[in-house]
């Protein structure tokens, strides 16, 4: 049994968390997987897995072997695909994740254009506002806002990420416009689960935005849902410009507290991928398409 299969077997055990689940994914028996694992550890002279009656965990050596094996297999796959494809049409699957609202508005049109140009490629798009483990989930690319905190990921800037605090005119006419961060604590606020203070909405901490609380209201992990609730007059929201700008231009929403924004609060929109030496051509080509069409979008 070759080293490449051995590495893939070990990674299947790591990713699935058990010999039985790894065996099912590879069409093997649990006993065969267990035997190969023992032989691998004996050959290396170290324990790669720390086993107990309840769970398995990677040893320090196992963690290093896992990282290097994943990189090696990715490089081999990319190299073989490039050689096989040559100058022919692109083929294979690309797994991509993006924030829900941004992905629906900007990423999906790019993908539909890409698929028309490259019908041999299948794209698996996951729209979610949760942070996806790219390596663990086998995802090729992610579009994210903010910074790439993981140093093992490679990030490329697509554009700026700006948000506007706003409410519908009827709500402001009935309740009055807030004059500062302190007023938001007394108002119905429409917010993402992690947003707790006005500073999370980009207001200036020097004006007390970091010490106050946002008022109780509607909490949802969907920016689209918050946008709809804001249009319905349910409260005040902080929405990305690509969602809010048309509604503001049409007079359906009114921007507020603009003069109290923290000038450093704007973030970046990034395209992120795991660090690999070789990328399949289909992934490189999709990255180029995303950069060309999404740079500074929104």
Question: Could you characterize the architecture of this molecule?
Answer:
The structure is a single chain. This protein has 298 residues and is α/β, with parallel strands linked by helices. It has three domains: 3-84, Arc Repressor Mutant, subunit A (Orthogonal Bundle), CATH 1.10.10.10; 89-161 and 267-294, D-Maltodextrin-Binding Protein, domain 2, CATH 3.40.190.10; 163-260, D-Maltodextrin-Binding Protein, domain 2 (3-Layer(aba) Sandwich). It has eleven helices and twelve strands. The chain has helices spanning 3-16, 19-26, 30-44, 60-85, 100-117, 134-137, 169-175, 181-184, 223-231, 241-249, 281-294; strands at 49-51, 56-58, 92-98, 121-127, 141-145, 153-161, 163-167, 189-191, 218-219, 236-240, 254-255, 267-274. A five-stranded mixed sheet has the order 4-3-5-12-6, covered by helices on one side. It has a five-stranded mixed sheet with strand order 9-8-10-7-11. Strand 1 (49-51) and strand 2 form a beta hairpin. The longest helix has 26 residues, at 60-85. It starts with a helix and ends with a helix.
